[in-house]
Specification:
The protein is an alpha+beta fold. The protein has a domain of 157 residues: Intracellular proteinase inhibitor BsuPI (Immunoglobulin-like, Sandwich), CATH 2.60.40.2360. It has 14 helices and 21 strands. The longest helix is centred in the N-terminal third of the chain and has 10 residues. The two termini are 47 Å apart. Bound molecules: heme C (HEC) (4 copies).
């Protein structure tokens, strides 16, 4: 998603950006609410923010959003509170370097001292070696001149949460309401395990950069322990569903419209539904089965991210929380009980409103399931 984080590439972000700011291909776009340069770009298109432009199609580096250079020029995280006491977000929370920042850097100094100039790297065999632009001089590769890209070792920035927090800690809307707070959630958990251990695991010897989250079904499947016990109880069935959040942040975390829906269905021997926990959306008919971050107006009614003036109820699983949902199911004729956990990137209301979005972004994603055969009970 980093490679698709700009309003040119991410259809969900683009929908909101066009609504609160404007056309991502125009210069001089400002936030409609404040008349200021769109803060969104400090995180979603950091190279454009660096050049103070809003015309995101002017250069690949802008439309690419959080690209290699965006992360690998962050030198030091200064925290989210600026000297003036105001929040400094994304790029603004970091000291930026012109040198590429890397977990260890290009430690070729000693080999240069002992063997003379070492301008090569990238391949084990001599005839495949490509010139290395990170050693202090411009190089030519396949007829193209690559400028010198000096590199610096910076493990304190690259091997810790500092690499993520400027953009992922917390973000408030203009009314001071936190729209996301992965960082605050993480602090609550008191864990010592950093973001990279899960989001950048070692794969084939290097740190995997795919950084899965809510758009990645396999990552979502890993996020939860889900199990169901069904026991007969005086002609009825009691179903106990265990939900355990495996993360040191909430489940779901991130953008406020991420949500989880739990579905319990009882089937007869013919595979027909004879009971379910919620006939319509569980937010209405079975609130315990709806895990979401609430944003409200001053009267406590649900509100959109830019307009919310207060936090509503937060029914998501807290860091490492274990929760049991219980149901009494009429036992008559039940052959099978099936429990399902669905993840949604967007609130149901937004799914209905944003008809232009592709189905893979709006359809519920099954992240866990459990079935119990109860014939004869
Ligand atoms: C979201 C931030 C982010 C982006 C975007 C990003 N990186 Fe990284 N990269 C990191 C972090 C953090 C590490 C350090 C991981 C570690 O050592 O634990 C790293 C490590 C690396 C390493 C060293 C890998 C290793 O295991 O030794 C290379 C090489 C690298 N990045 C190249 C790239 C390239 C090329 C791109 C663009 C295609 C890119 N990075 C985009 C954050 C990022
Ligand atoms: C310069 C800002 C920036 C930095 C630094 C950054 N991210 Fe992100 N990250 C973003 C943005 C913006 C998105 C959202 C892209 C979108 O959905 O439009 C994102 C998306 C993600 C997602 C995917 C969310 C989804 O919807 O699927 C994960 C996971 C993630 N980042 C983890 C990390 C980790 C771990 C680090 C530190 C190694 C990191 N990020 C560093 C800005 C950043
Ligand atoms: C124990 C492993 C683990 C650790 C540690 C961890 N995460 Fe996650 N993270 C996950 C899993 C699994 C998901 C998918 C489920 C979810 O969205 O909560 C996820 C989801 C996310 C998302 C996706 C949100 C979205 O809107 O799609 C972001 C962003 C994120 N994590 C950031 C972080 C940051 C920042 C840290 C460090 C402060 C961190 N994570 C630490 C496992 C982890
Ligand atoms: C502090 C950094 C930051 C700022 C500022 C920021 N965002 Fe984000 N935004 C993120 C990150 C990180 C994610 C993805 C992970 C998550 O869900 O937390 C994200 C995700 C989103 C998503 C969900 C995208 C998807 O693919 O589902 C939308 C929509 C969004 N942002 C809109 C905006 C808008 C509009 C603005 C400006 C008014 C803005 N953001 C400002 C960091 C930021």
């Amino acid at each position: 998603m980093h490679a698709s984080s700009s309003a040119i590439k991410d259809p969900i972000h683009a929908t909101f950006y066009k609504n609160v700011a404007g056309d991502p291909t125009q210069e001089g776009v400002v936030l409609k609410a404040s008349g200021k340069y769109p803060v969104c770009l400090q995180c979603h298109a950091p190279n454009a923010a660096r050049d103070k432009t809003t015309k995101l199609d002017a250069m690949p580096a802008y439309s690419e959003g959080v690209n290699c250079i965006a992360c690998h020029t962050l030198k030091k995280f200064n925290g989210l509170t600026g000297a003036d006491g105001k929040m400094q977000l994304g790029l603004k929370s970091y000291e930026i370097s012109d040198k590429i920042q890397a977990p260890t850097g290009m430690n070729r100094g000693l080999s240069k001292l002992s063997q003379g100039s070492d301008m090569f790297g990238g391949s084990a065999t001599d005839d495949e070696q490509k010139p290395n632009p990170h050693l202090g001089e411009a190089v030519t590769v396949d007829g193209v001149e690559i400028p010198s890209l000096p590199m610096e070792g910076n493990p304190k920035q690259l091997k810790t949460n500092d690499a993520c927090m400027g953009c992922h800690d917390k973000r408030n809307n203009p009314h001071g309401v936190a729209l996301c707070q992965t960082g605050d959630e993480y602090s609550l958990s008191k864990t010592n395990v950093n973001c990279l251990s899960c989001h950048m695991p070692i794969n084939n010897g290097v740190a995997d950069h795919s950084m899965g989250g809510g758009h990645d079904q396999s990552m979502l499947k890993r996020s939860i322990v889900f199990d169901m016990e069904v026991t007969p109880n005086a002609g009825k069935l009691t179903a106990n569903l265990l939900l355990k959040n495996q993360q040191p942040h909430s489940l779901p975390t991130g953008a406020p419209f991420r949500n989880i829906v739990v579905k319990v269905t009882a089937y007869n021997a013919a595979g027909e539904t004879i009971w379910s926990n919620a006939a319509d959306h569980p937010a209405k008919s079975d609130p315990q089965a709806y895990l979401a971050y609430g944003l409200t107006d001053s009267e406590g009614k649900p509100a959109s991210p830019p307009e919310a003036t207060a936090l509503g109820e937060d029914t998501r699983l807290k860091p490492f929380e274990e929760r049991t949902l219980s149901y009494e199911i009429p036992g008559e004729g039940v052959a099978l009980v099936r429990g399902e956990v669905f993840y949604n990137l967007l609130w149901d209301g937004l799914v209905k409103k944003f008809k232009h979005l592709p189905a893979d972004l709006t359809a519920p994603v099954l992240i866990a399931e459990s079935e119990k055969d109860v014939t004869g009970s």
